[in-house]
Specification:
Length: 330
């Protein structure tokens, strides 16, 4: 890792919020529709580049997001922010397009086992479904992004080769005509040198393509992986407000990398994220009241690095006594 990662020098890094989809879908409580809309509206004011608002999926499979149409239609759009939605199939794409989603996010896995377990399809069946979504989106204003789960390893098969990941990316970008690809660390198996290798390989092959990295903090390496990817040329990252999210194949693990933690770290390193950190922290502070539990965010709990605290009572008396002990005796 080069020294460049330790000093941003104003380089722009785009943070893309997934908590309102990836995070809320994993919660057992249903967050009221009006509260979801208000949360997205608050996030729109923070400087985020993209917000994955919801998912156009079966209400039976993900009841927490059964209000997708209403949420997507009633949010207040801020110019310059991309409002994205996850879509699993052509019908979901049609619903998202009708609800004015700017971007359709499609998902499949780099490993056959995870794809079967997660989507109940082989990878080739998933690819055929993605091709149909791309056909539906063609000629509309909605752009297409494909998220490749388990790009850094599969919890059932182990390592996934760089070549396998690049082969799928090639099919998305060169055959489907996707606008971008997200490489996902679905269960937190990525580590920094691996991240750097895959990021560099992708950038060499498609220097102008849209590339997003999506990390989980399952094994405590989320921020380290973000920094490794930046040093290797990446500048777009999915992050989740409050650190919400997770995966059923990593039980008990932490969720996605936390938006406010990543934004706080990058700001200290002089990267330009465009984020208004106090507004972002205020949005994250709403979450416990919405989901009924504590959140992983250390920034919400501890504050920013220079959020100072009052000195303990009696400190001046302690100082006086300490100085008195130093005074020479007569």
């Amino acid at each position: 890792m080069s020294a460049g990662v330790w000093q941003g020098a104003g380089r722009r890094i785009h943070l893309q919020e997934v908590g309102t989809r990836d995070g809320l879908q994993a919660e057992s409580v249903f967050v009221p529709t009006e509260a979801k809309i208000a949360l997205v509206d608050a996030l729109s004011e923070t400087g985020l580049s993209r917000i994955e608002v919801t998912a156009f999926v079966s209400a039976r499979s993900i009841p927490a997001l059964r209000d997708a149409e209403q949420v997507m239609r009633e949010i207040r759009r801020k110019p310059g922010v991309v409002y994205s939605a996850l879509v699993p199939n052509a019908r979901g794409a049609e619903r998202a397009i009708e609800s004015a989603a700017d971007e359709l996010n499609l998902v499949m896995s780099a490993s056959e086992s995870h794809n079967l377990a997660n989507l109940r399809m082989t990878r080739e069946q998933s690819y055929a479904a993605l091709a149909e979504v791309a056909r539906v989106a063609r000629g509309t204003q909605a752009r297409v992004n494909v998220s490749l789960s388990c790009s850094f390893g599969c919890p059932m098969e182990g390592d996934v080769t760089t070549q396998a990941v690049l082969d799928w990316c090639g099919r998305y970008l060169e055959t489907l005509g996707a606008h971008g690809v997200t490489l996902c660390d679905t269960t937190g198996m990525a580590y920094p040198t691996q991240v750097a290798r895959l990021t560099e390989a992708f950038r060499r092959r498609w220097p102008g393509a849209g590339l997003t990295l999506h990390f989980h903090n399952t094994r405590g390496m989320g921020l380290a992986n973000v920094l490794a990817a930046i040093d290797a040329g990446a500048d777009r990252f999915d992050t989740s407000l409050g650190g919400l999210g997770g995966c059923p194949y990593a039980p008990g693990a932490s969720g996605n990398v936390c938006t406010e933690e990543v934004a706080h770290a990058l700001a200290l390193m002089s990267y330009d994220t465009g984020i208004d950190l106090p507004l972002l922290i205020a949005a994250a502070a709403r979450l416990p009241g919405l989901i009924g539990r504590d959140i992983p965010s250390q920034i919400v709990k501890a504050g920013q690095r220079l959020d100072l605290h009052p000195a303990p009572a009696g400190l001046e008396d302690i100082r006086a006594r300490a100085l008195a002990r130093e005074a020479p005796s007569a």
